[in-house]
Amino acid sequence: MRKGLLLGAGFSYDLGMPLVKTLTKDFFSFFSKKRLKSFIDLWSKNEPYGVDDPIEPMAFPILVRLVEKYRRDPELNYEGFLKEIEELIKNTTDRATARSYQYALSKFEDVLTEMFYIYHEHNFHIYENCKQFYKEFDKFIGDEPLWIMTLNHDLLIEFLCLDSGIPIKFGAVSSTDFPIFNDDFANLVEFGVNDRANLKLDSMDYLKFGKGANILKLHGALNEYTYDGNKKTAYVNVNETDKPMDYLKRVSKVMHKMEYKINGNSMRFGKDIAVSDMNGEMQFLSHTIKTGGNKFSKTINPKSGEEKMVLFEQILDMLDEITIVGYSFCDYHIDTRLYNAMLKNENLKVWIIDPLSGKNELFVPFDYSLRVRGMQCCTPEWLNYFTNKNWDIENMKILNLYRNQRSKNDEKLRNEFFKR
Predict the structure, then answer these.
(1) Containing domain of residue 69, as a range?
(2) Going by DSSP bridges, is the β-strand pair 184-195/145-150 parallel, antiparallel, or unpaired?
(3) Is 94 within the bounds of a domain?
(4) How confident is the model over 141-189, as pLDDT tens digits?
(5) CB neighbourhood size of 213 (10 A)
(6) Is 168 among the domain residues?
(7) Is residue 16 part of a domain?
(8) Do the Cβ atoms of 161 and 213 come closer than 8 Å?
(9) Which of 23, 110, 180, 301 lies in disulfide reach of 187, CB 3.0 to 4.6 Å?
(10) CB proximity list for 294: less than 8 A, separation 6 or greater
(11) For strand 212-217 and strand 145-150, is the pairing parallel, antiparallel, or unpaired?
(12) Cβ neighbour number for residue 136 with a 10 Å cutoff
């Protein structure tokens, strides 16, 4: 049986990642009135697009009011905030004003990217304590390649595979090295590489036989970049001998250490990291992380920049079963393709694992012949039940003790990193 796994934020929660509500609170805690004012003062004096393409500083007060709106209302979230800025850019006819919004959006996204990393580092002890509750993940994969399509930006699926000795493939067909510094070609990081124009199942190097995880980061991740004018995608290589912390440190090295210097000055530009290739030429590594409400278009016709959606469709077309874990069905571009896959692939069956409901209206037309099934529970409980066919009450009690400590841990992180 060809199985797939679609992961949302709920899959990673018990391993240390926040849900949307906590991430939103942390994000707007960081952008306090005082800190936001200092940023705005700095941004308004910059010339991010050059002297000949100025920004309009008077646009920034609108963003200040938007931040205040989202800070006051606990029902709103950071994705909606970014979407509103995207709409401002789209609907603004004045170029300088639109560029101001675009510049600010890139800064907000830089902060979010760094926050995703901080959660890994600060909450690594949560991963270490709670990975025991995911030990059945190895058995869920079985003896054939599992297709893992994740909407998360984190590295936790890689961590679980590394701790279980499960081979990982990102589909890369070649590799390249980038030095950490352009004056030191002995200190290198290896990346797997794909041409973005050729993201097709039959031309990518995924596992075809045997136990392993074929991973597709649908919304990008900390370990994934584009370069060569966005023509290529590069993945920080996973070594079979890596421990999770080894891999995290290597990703951190790329994020925080890698640079290109000219006359002693670093050429880093926010999320675009200036690096040297092995010929000494400057390249730019750009994070693939997509946030906000307009990650992909609403139409399903293939288009440039949306190659991952085409690959997603190809994977769904050949699966027999997909298990959806911790996903809230809030991404139109994902929901549409799931629906279409159920129409086109009559063999495809779906499991929905969710603590609030094991059902979703999206699949109502296909709720026959056991094509749609669900379990109302969290990820660790599901994995345990999948393997043992019973509910381990003692295990759940221990897990709930860790869950009860999360609010204190979250507040500590917020005070140490996001409020200071």
Answers:
(1) 23-122
(2) unpaired
(3) yes
(4) 999 999 999 999 999 999 999 999 999 999 999 999 999 999 889 999 9
(5) 24
(6) no
(7) no
(8) yes
(9) 180
(10) 83, 86
(11) parallel
(12) 16
